[in-house]
Amino acid sequence: MMNEKKGRKPKIVVIGGGTGLPVILQGLKAKQADVTAIVTVADDGGSSGSLRHYANVVPPGDIRNVLLSLSNMPQQHKDIFQYRFDTKDNFLAGHSIGNLIIAAMAEMEGNIFEAIQTLAEMMGVDGHVYPAAEEPLLLHAIFEDGSKIVGESKIAKVSKKIERVFVTANEDNHQVKASREVLKAIQEADMVVLGPGSLFTSILPNLMIGDLGQAVVDTKAEVVYICNIMTQLGETENFTDSDHVDVLHKHLGKRFIDTVLVNTEHVPKDYVNYVKYEEYLVQVSHNFTGLSKEIPRVISDNFLLFRDEGVFHDGEKVVEELFKLAYETNRIRYAKA
Predict the structure, then answer these.
(1) 80 lies in which domain range?
(2) How far, in Å, CA of 183 to CA of 196, rounded?
(3) Same-domain check for residues 293 and 233
(4) Looking at residue 44, what is its pLDDT?
(5) What are 283-313's pLDDT values in tens digits?
(6) What is the CATH number for 287?
(7) What molecular functions are annotated in GO for this chain (predicted)?
(8) Which of 58-67, 223-232, 259-268 is least confident?
(9) Cβ contacts of residue 247 below 8 Å, gap of 6+?
(10) Among 234, 309, 219, 230, which Cα is nearest to 262's?
(11) How many domains does the structure of the chain reveal?
């Protein structure tokens, strides 16, 4: 059990993908948590999708951003890793140097898991980074009207209400399994954090890996969901915070979330640049009655960070709540043991 007085770092596993994940990881790193990031491998758009297609490699974009968020490299080195080739560079256009390095390392090491571990050591990563699976996955969506589509980047473009999603292997129909060390990390965690990130395309692709999802359901750790601030075009249109939780529970067949963090601060309509952030729709509305039926604990507060004409989770505020929750829940569990 975690004991604050003895000074043991809380073991916190964060599962997801997209731009929200690195924000939380940076905050956890600053608080010196024992962090493990489990990163989605179902992305098929942009540079990641192109490299996935040509090199048959796990999409590297989210992995790159997570490695950098936990890295102790000088900022100049991080900037090099993040540099994206200009659109005039023909074949290299749109690719970041980091994505190319990860693809090259996967080829050198023979598998993505070892590639990430080697890079983590080279980059001075403070924590653990694991791909959700050791092969690229295909994300499938079934819509309420019965139609289907394959491909993470295509799902939101359909603009239909999603009934459910699932994943399969890239090549054939063999059973998809979690990457090595992933199940152990979840089992030994004090806390498992889901999000923030796109519900259907960043969080659920991880949980739909059979043994990974079951490990999250079975873990004795506190399972926390960080609810999105804004609804998302083609994914969560008209969703309340309770709707987000309900989708997660239905996909895994059990009410497994212990705590949800929801932002209650108002987002001014005239602040957000909806051209720049075209996936934004409106602010997620609240249904605290529905939430109380789904989960034991709701933490609601001002978690907003206004930046670059967009709204984001304030990593410091979120992590502060996660730490308080981790110590409190483990104190209670220790007292009952």
Answers:
(1) 43-131
(2) 21
(3) yes
(4) 75
(5) 999 999 999 999 999 999 999 999 898 899 9
(6) 3.40.50.10680
(7) LPPG:FO 2-phospho-L-lactate transferase activity
(8) 58-67
(9) 199, 200, 204
(10) 230
(11) 2
